Amino acid sequence: xxxxxxxxxxxDDEKGVGWLIFASSMLGLVGILSIIDGxxxxxxxxxxxxxxxxxxxDLRTWGWITLLIGVLAIIAAMGVLSxxxxxxxxxxxxxxxxxxxxxxxxxxxxxxxxxxxxxxxxVIYALAAYGGKRYA
Length: 136
Hints:
The chain has helices spanning about 1-15, 15-45, 60-80, 85-105, 110-130. It has about 140 residues and is mostly helical. Helix 2 packs antiparallel against helix 3 (about 60-80), helix 2 (about 15-45) packs antiparallel against helix 5 (about 110-130) and helix 4 (about 85-105) packs antiparallel against helix 5 (about 110-130).
């Protein structure tokens, strides 16, 4: 009986608000961390694992790619907070690009890249499962 009252009190529009705020916050955080990763890769390559082999090119190229993806993630985070469907899909695409980027960047800093990869997967889940309802 208590669950019926609780569901009726919150309604369908309120379900998933926490996931959407989480997705927006994590997209912003991952974007900031990706920008920092990119700047560090461009300036101090000694921070990362020595003699790493990349899918293509070198650490400097991945630094630029990661920096640009970080900016993309911050823009997506701001859009997700607006609640539009375009922002939802843009956030899903940004999360997928972050996941792919970090998976390919794993040679430089393996544990950190896998942590960011897992966060991106959670962001994709949150936006795919709960992004259809407007909460703002």
